[in-house]
């Protein structure tokens, strides 16, 4: 009987080791948070477009199994919705809050908004806008973001004075400047791109002594 015990102990140890290893893998998968997956997907989206956002390569990059993905998301479309929601929060709502905290005058808020926006990496936004051209749900999300941003611009330009039509036109020009900067590769002679952008913003914010827009 005593000779059987070491063998049983060995079997039990191996079984315990396998069970513990499986439990460790499950725990490792769960340690990767939903936000980890969203950040990894956003990075892949920005560098290669939506076709590059695949569960298996993302899992490998995160050092987990695909089971970790399905722990947090139902499918790839659910991941896309989460990436877009995170983009909206980070690049629209959070920036507006930051600008409102930093400045009180409408022209200062608009300057701060422009500085903050052009300093960021546009790759994720460009990829989302590209996807929106052929994906209706993404297009609806982009429309919601554009409307929110335009509403903020509109409110600040109206606060500077002038007609509602002028405020709308200036908001459109300001927003076109923000979005279009990523697409325009033209040179500006002896002037730096940032110098020209800042000057363009000042032209849109030009006001007279009474605070009314003069452009």
Q: Tell me the domain tally.
A: 2
Count helical runs. Answer: 10
CATH class of the largest domain: Mainly Alpha
Indicate the overall shape. elongated
Order of helices and strands: HHHHHHHHHH
> Which class best fits the helix and strand makeup?
mainly alpha
Q: Are there runs of 5+ residues with pLDDT below 50, and where? A: 7-11, 13-19, 21-25
Q: The CATH topology of the largest domain is what?
A: Tetracycline Repressor, domain 2
| Average pLDDT for all residues | 87
Distance between the termini: 100 Å
What is the multimeric organization of the chains shown? single chain
The largest sheet, given as strand count, sense and whether it forms a barrel, is: none
Q: Specify Rg, calculated over alpha carbons.
A: 26 Å
Percentage of residues assigned to helices: over 70%
Quick description:
The protein has ten helices and no strands. It has about 220 residues and is mostly helical.
Pick out its properties.
mainly alpha, Arc Repressor Mutant, subunit A, Tetracycline Repressor, domain 2, 215 residues
Describe what this molecule looks like in 3D.
With 215 residues, the chain is mainly alpha-helical. The chain has 2 domains: 1-73, Arc Repressor Mutant, subunit A (Orthogonal Bundle); 75-215, Tetracycline Repressor, domain 2 (Orthogonal Bundle). It is 75% helix and 0% strand. It contains 10 helices and no strands. The protein has helices spanning 4-31, 34-48, 55-62, 66-72, 76-102, 106-119, 123-132, 136-159, 164-180, 193-204. Helix 5 crosses helix 6. The longest helix is centred in the N-terminal third of the chain and has 28 residues, at 4-31. The protein is elongated and about 60 Å long. Residues 7-11, 13-19 and 21-25 have low confidence and may be disordered.
